[in-house]
Amino acid sequence: MILPKLTIVLAGPRGFCAGVDRAIQIVERALEISGRPVYVRHEIVHNRFVVEQLEAKGALFVDELDQVPEGATVVFSAHGVPKAVPADALRRGLNSLDATCPLVSKVHREAERHFEEGRQIILIGHGGHPEVDGTMGQLPPGAVVLLEDAEGVDALVVEDENNLAYCTQTTLSVDETESVIAALKARFPTISGPRKEDICYATTNRQAAVKAIAGDVDALMVIGSANSSNSSRLVEVARAYGCARSILVSRAADIDWRWFEGVSRLGLTAGASAPEILVEEVVAEARRRFDVTIEERTVARESVIFKLPAALNPGKQRAESAETALG
Ligand code: SF4
After folding, report:
1. What is the CA(137)–ligand 1 centre distance, in A?
2. Angle 267-19-247 from CA coordinates, rounded to 5°
3. Are 177 and 135 in contact (CB under 8 A)?
């Protein structure tokens, strides 16, 4: 049978980032050291497949610490937790491990520094996301005000217009965040903030890769879970950059292949919490239905690795190194 032709343009970088990789390793090492079960507060990263893989190895996911028995090991997710959570774990006699991504912790420290210097902080982010809860929870109530979009700037009520700072969630849209910051600076010209924003290298690179291919494909598919912020942003970026037919799919089994009608060039990427095996699975399923040609389009090389907590891997610490952008 002659199969229809399909070119799959693979965006690079895609998939796992250093923070997700580290968080998963923390749970796996904890299981090796402490044995089953290891409790994990909230999804370690926002990907159903990853969560199920860890459950099969002995991880037990819970919503809150009161579900963890005294003396057990509990891991906090990559998104970060409010300060009250580790304090509560200590009170309950739990052995806690923090899998917060170091780039999220950096934002926590930034917010604390501004607070110590007497500034009120405006956090640009999405309400209800665990990273936002974690960052707001580093400081007392009222110290951090949430701002979700540029439209919200006019309605902001602050204590002192000349004593403000802003921070951002790490997984936002680079372009949208620029416009929110511009609106903030227009209303509060003296506001302090990071040199650019706090959006992480992985989010920035995955969005840049999507921008590079969005205008050159008929449709674009992002592999990722619906609750993954950075994955959802990739779909929005693809649409904004000329590929209206863009969707988020959790894995190959969820694809409605009728969606491919009229598609001869498909852009394919994966959010920072989605493993490469899920991309391979989609390519393998596509090969059963199409005569597939693969094109790789890479806009940056990443070599970032984060150290594991010393308690888990004292002998094998790996150094963090910088990513190299391709011209
Ligand atoms: S997406 Fe960015 S902030 Fe989130 S875990 Fe990955 S590197 Fe860290």
Report:
1. 19
2. 25
3. no
Per-residue pLDDT at 4 exceeds 70 = yes
> Cα of 18 to ligand 1 centre, how many Å?
7
Locate the DSSP E strands across the chain.
5-12, 38-41, 59-62, 73-76, 95-98, 120-124, 144-147, 164-168, 219-223, 246-249, 265-270, 291-298, 300-301, 324-325
The two structure tokens encoding residue 317: 């610490």
Ligand 1 atom with the shortest distance to the CA of 101: 8
Ligand 1 pocket residue status of 18, Cβ below 6 Å = yes
- Known catalytic membership, residue 131: yes
204 lines ligand 1 (CB under 6 A): no
> pLDDT tens across 32-65, in order?
999 999 999 999 999 999 999 999 999 999 999 9
- Report pTM: 0.95
Residue 54 φ/ψ, nearest 5 degrees:
-70, -35
